[in-house]
Amino acid sequence: MFVKKLRLAELDKLILIILCLLCGISILFIFSTQSGGQFGAQNFALKQSINYVIGFTLLLLFRLLDLNQLRLLAWSFYIVSVLSLLLLTIAPESIAPNILGAKRWFSIPFVGSIQPSEFFRISLIVIVAKLIADLKEKSLHRTMQEDLLLLGKILLVTIPPSLLVYQQPDTGMVMLYMFAIVAMLGMIKLNKIVVTIGILVPLLAISIIACLFLFKPEIIYDDVIPKLKPHQQDRIIGWLDPSDNSNQAFQSRRSVLAVGTGGLIGKGIEGGNVYVPEKHTDFIFASIAEEGGFLTGAAVILLFFLLITRILEIGSKSNDPFGTYICAGLALSLTIQIVQNIGMVEGMLPVKGIALPFLTYGGSSLFSNMILLGIVMSVRNTYAHQFFGEPKRST
Questions:
Q1: d(CA 61, CA 64)
Q2: pLDDT per residue over 12-21, tens digit each?
Q3: Which chain regions cross the lipid bilayer (predicted)?
Q4: Which residues of 172-199 are buried (b: 16+ CB within 10 A; e: fewer)?
Q5: Using CA atoms, how far apart are residues 40 and 50, in angstroms rounded to an integer?
């Protein structure tokens, strides 16, 4: 059946508890940041509460999906999500406004802003999981040619839409796509030559960039960085040399100051006095660390750790490889998203427009993650009680 009878008792209780705690933290600190009056009369806390109601509804609905039916619908979801990205590029500004140089959202009356790249992440994870699972079921002993063909198919469904997202511009989201795919490919035994090339090429590129920065920094500053988009140049320069580029590093420096002045227990709710742009969105962790202190920040990180661990556990116990790969892709994607967001707030990584999952104000990121967790709960029904071994399909 396409839809199974909803059995609330079978919902994963640990995931629900974690989500409820993150929901409370998100709304509380968004309320606190808006109490300073910097956002005028807008009630972002109330809007986030509504977003969470919608998000939990989406989670329950996608929990109803059967994994076999999801596999059948994978291509349909993928095509619709790609068409939405194409439509975004040609849509007039009345529908897709250009905000701070970025054209990433549809503005829908009475609904708000919808970011197609967030929902493409769902369809990409699902379609790549299907491609890998189909090949694994078809051929138990794959050849190098079959592995290369699989990689070719994955690149074909990934690269063109990712270029559309990159042009929005949204480099951070493209990065999440790539890590999700890497996680899923890591679950199967690819040909050793293919794996070696896949590891050595990125390592070589990173090594070359690191050597140039250490021994020939003028090449990085004069030849490499100028080829990037203006906002990317500002973020990288501000991160590499914040003392001499105060304007480019303004947001990062302010967030580091907010985190640093929070101390162990923080300044208390509504006690934050360090101005940080976008403090209720991508820099929500600065507000958490400033007002809740190190202990609250550490508690949030612990909740994320428990959530990711639970997703991996569910994936490892599934008797459907398709579900296992989805869980692996989501887990690494969330991990990179969390590390990047908190890293940029702490000044350790360049600033990127990446939301902190379940905490940042906004609908698209929350909705897409809730949908994925709904799928994870559907995967939970295929337990086979294995631990990171090769899953077997039930008969």
A1: 5
A2: 889 999 999 9
A3: 14-32, 44-65, 72-91, 148-166, 172-188, 193-215, 292-312, 324-342, 354-376
A4: bbbbbbebbbbbbbebbebbeeeeeeee
A5: 19
* The two structure tokens encoding residue 347: 């000044």
Taking the C-alpha atoms of residue 325 and residue 340, their distance in angstroms, rounded to an integer, is 23
Q: Which residues pair with 114 in a beta bridge?
A: 106
Q: Give the DSSP letter of residue 320.
A: -
Could you give the C-alpha distances from 179 to 31, 103, 176, 207, in angstroms and in order? 33, 23, 5, 19
The pLDDT tens digits for 124-160 are 999 999 999 888 777 667 677 877 888 889 989 999 9
345 within domain boundaries: yes
* 218 domain residue, yes or no: no
Would the CA dihedral through 269, 275, 280, 281 be positive or negative?
Answer: negative
* Positive or negative torsion for Cα 40, 43, 48, 51: negative
Phi/psi class of residue 365: alpha, beta or left (left: φ > 0; alpha: ψ in -120 to 50)?
alpha
Strands 112-114 and 106-108: antiparallel
Residue type (1 letter), 266: G
CB 185 within 8 A of CB 158: no
In a domain, 91, yes or no: yes
Contact 323, 67 (CB under 8 A): yes
Domain that holds residue 290: 13-184+242-382
Q: Which amino acid is at 41?
A: A
Beta-bridged to residue 112, according to DSSP, are 108
CA-angle at 120, arms to 283 and 361, nearest 5°:
25
Residue 383, SS3 per DSSP: strand
Which of these, 330, 323, 325, 329, lies nearest to 378 by C-alpha position?
323
| Spatial contact of 211 and 204, defined as CB atoms under 8 Å apart | no
Place of tokens 């559309």: 164
| Tokens representing residue 318 in the block | 């599934």
Structural domain includes residue 167: yes
Query: pTM value?
Result: 0.85
Instruction: Spell out a b/e string for 18-30, using b for 16 or more CB atoms within 10 Å of the CB, else e.
Output: bbebbbebbbbbb
Pair of tokens at residue 284? 């929500």
* Domains: count for the chain: 1
